[in-house]
C-alpha cells in the first residue's frame, strides 16, 4: 500500500506545468498537516535511504472521524499491522503481516496527546497498542517484538482504504466460491471481481466465511489485495494517468497520516524510486509465524523458532523465500481460466517450484506480489 502512495506523490512532484505545481503544493500541505511524531524520532537525512530500511503500515479500526464502518467502540485499535523491509541493494522487499490477536509483551508507552504513561505489559493482544499511545506506541511495540529499528510509519483509516480503491478504478480479487455475507456486506460471485469502495473494504475485513474463519485467513485476503493493487499500478497505466495519480495521491493525503520522517516530499520521492525498482516476484508477503495460545483459543502467540528464523534473515538482510505449500488454507493459486488482464511478469516463479539457494523457510505462510491467488470461501456459508 505504501508503495502505491509514494509512487503517486512522487510522479506528481516531478510532473511539469503549473497545475502539477499547485497540486503538489496542496498535497505537501495536507501531508505535513497530518504528520505524526514518533518517540525519539529524528528525521533521517537524504543519505539515510542508502541501504536497507523498515516502514510500518498501521490500519486503524474506529479511528477518529470515521462513521458507518462497523460497530462503534470506545477504543481505537490497530487492526492491521504490516512491516515492510527493503533490502540494502533495493532489489527485494519482505512484507510481514502481524495478526491483531497476537498476544505479546508490550513496552511502556506514553500518549503524546494526553501525556499519560502506560506501564509495560507481559501478555496482551497487539491491537491494543494504539490506544496506549497512538502510532508511536504501535511502532515501539513492533520494534520490541522484532528487534528491528523502524524509522518510518504510516497510519491508514478505513475511509482511506475506500477512497484509494476508488482512485485506481477498483482492484481485482478472486473467490473460490460465491460469498453472500450480510453481516460484513460482502457479496461476490465465484471467480474474479473488481472491487472498489465499501466492497473493497468488506473484502479486506471479511473473516468468518473465508479460510478457517480466523484473523489469519483475513491476512491472506489482505495480501492478495495488496498484490493485485501493485500489479494494477505497474501494468494498467495508472502511473502515466495524471487524473488517476492525483486522485490517488489526494485520497492518500486526506486519509493517511505519515510519520514526520516521511512527511517531506523529497523523502517520498526517494522512497518511491527505491520501491519501484523491486520486481513483483521479489516482493514477498508473509504472515508472522504463530501458534495457538494455550490460554485463549481465540488468540495466538509467536511460534518462537519459526519467527526467530524469519527475523534473523531480515536482520541479516537476507532473502526470504516461500516453500511449495506456503499459501496455507485461506488462499489457492488462481486457475488459468480465471478472467484477467494480467501481464506476463518476467521471472515469475512457479508456485510449485521451491527455491534452491537456502532462502526458503519451511512452514512460512504467504505469497509474492507476482502470484495470482483466490481467497478460499468456506463451504459452510
Task: Give an overview in words.
It is a single chain. The longest helix is centred in the middle third of the chain and has 21 residues, at 215-235. The protein has 381 residues and is α+β, with helices and mostly antiparallel strands. A seven-stranded mixed sheet has the order 13-8-1-2-3-14-18, with helices on both faces. A two-stranded antiparallel ribbon has the order 4-7. Strands 5-6 form a two-stranded antiparallel sheet. It has helices at 2-14, 18-33, 134-146, 158-167, 197-205, 215-235, 242-255, 265-276, 304-315, and strands spanning 53-61, 77-86, 93-98, 103-106, 109-110, 117-118, 121-125, 152-157, 171-175, 179-181, 186-188, 191-195, 256-258, 283-287, 290-293, 296-302, 331-333, 366-368, 373-375. A hairpin with a 6-residue loop joins strand 5 (109-110) and strand 6. The chain has nine helices and 19 strands.
What does this entry show, briefly?
The protein has about 375 residues and is an alpha+beta fold. About 30% of the residues lie in helices and about 25% in strands.
Classification by helices and strands: alpha+beta
Task: Report the count of strand segments.
Answer: 19
Radius of gyration computed on alpha carbons: 20 Å
Query: How far is it from the N-terminal to the C-terminal residue, by CA?
Result: 30 Å
CATH architecture tag:
3-Layer(aba) Sandwich
> What is the strand arrangement across the widest sheet?
13-8-1-2-3-14-18
How much β-strand is present in the residues? 15-25%
Number of domains: 1
Sheet of most strands:
7 strands, mixed
Global mean pLDDT: 80
CATH homologous superfamily caption: LCP protein
Organism: Amnibacterium endophyticum
Region (Disordered): 330-360
Protein name: LCP family protein
Family: Belongs to the LytR/CpsA/Psr (LCP) family.
Amino acid at each position: 500500500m505504501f508503495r502505491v502512495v509514494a509512487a503517486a506523490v512522487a510522479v506528481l512532484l516531478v510532473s511539469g506545468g503549473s497545475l502539477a505545481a499547485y497540486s503538489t503544493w496542496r498535497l505537501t500541505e495536507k501531508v505535513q498537516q497530518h504528520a505524526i511524531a514518533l518517540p525519539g524520532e529524528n528525521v533521517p537525512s537524504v543519505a539515510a535511504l542508502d541501504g536497507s530500511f523498515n516502514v510500518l503500515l498501521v490500519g486503524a479500526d474506529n479511528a477518529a472521524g470515521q462513521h458507518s464502518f462497523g460497530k462503534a467502540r470506545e477504543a481505537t485499535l490497530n487492526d492491521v499491522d504490516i512491516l515492510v523491509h527493503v533490502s540494502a541493494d533495493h532489489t527485494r522487499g519482505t512484507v510481514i503481516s502481524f495478526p491483531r490477536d497476537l498476544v505479546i509483551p508490550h513496552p511502556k508507552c506514553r500518549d503524546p496527546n494526553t501525556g499519560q504513561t502506560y506501564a509495560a505489559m507481559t501478555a496482551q493482544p497487539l491491537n491494543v497498542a494504539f490506544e496506549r499511545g497512538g502510532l508511536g506506541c504501535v511502532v515501539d511495540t513492533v520494534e520490541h517484538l522484532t528487534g528491528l529499528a523502524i524509522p518510518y510509519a504510516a497510519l491508514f483509516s478505513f475511509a482511506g482504504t475506500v477512497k484509494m480503491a476508488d482512485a485506481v478504478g477498483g482492484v481485482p480479487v478472486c473467490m473460490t466460491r460465491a460469498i453472500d455475507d450480510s453481516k460484513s456486506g460482502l457479496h461476490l460471485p465465484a471467480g474474479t471481481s473488481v472491487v472498489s469502495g465499501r466492497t473493497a473494504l468488506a473484502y479486506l475485513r471479511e473473516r468468518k466465511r473465508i479460510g478457517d474463519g480466523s484473523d489469519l485467513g483475513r491476512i491472506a485476503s489482505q495480501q492478495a489485495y495488496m498484490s493485485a493493487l501493485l500489479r494494477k499500478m505497474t501494468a494498467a497505466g495508472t502511473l502515466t494517468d495524471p487524473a488517476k495519480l492525483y486522485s490517488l495521491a489526494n485520497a492518500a493525503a486526506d486519509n493517511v497520516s505519515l510519520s514526520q520522517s516521511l512527511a517531506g516530499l523529497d523523502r517520498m520521492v526517494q522512497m518511491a524510486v527505491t520501491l519501484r525498482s523491486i520486481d513483483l516476484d521479489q516482493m514477498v508477503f508473509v504472515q508472522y509465524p504463530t501458534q495457538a495460545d494455550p490460554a485463549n483459543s481465540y488468540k495466538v502467540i509467536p511460534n518462537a523458532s519459526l519467527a526467530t528464523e524469519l527475523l534473523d534473515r531480515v536482520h541479516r538482510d537476507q532473502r526470504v523465500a516461500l516453500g511449495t505449500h506456503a499459501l496455507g488454507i485461506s488462499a489457492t493459486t488462481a486457475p488459468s481460466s480465471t478472467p484477467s488482464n494480467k501481464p506476463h511478469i518476467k521471472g515469475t516463479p512457479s508456485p510449485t517450484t521451491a527455491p534452491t539457494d537456502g532462502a526458503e523457510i519451511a512452514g512460512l505462510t504467504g505469497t509474492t506480489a507476482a502470484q495470482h491467488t483466490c481467497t478460499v470461501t468456506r463451504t459452510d456459508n
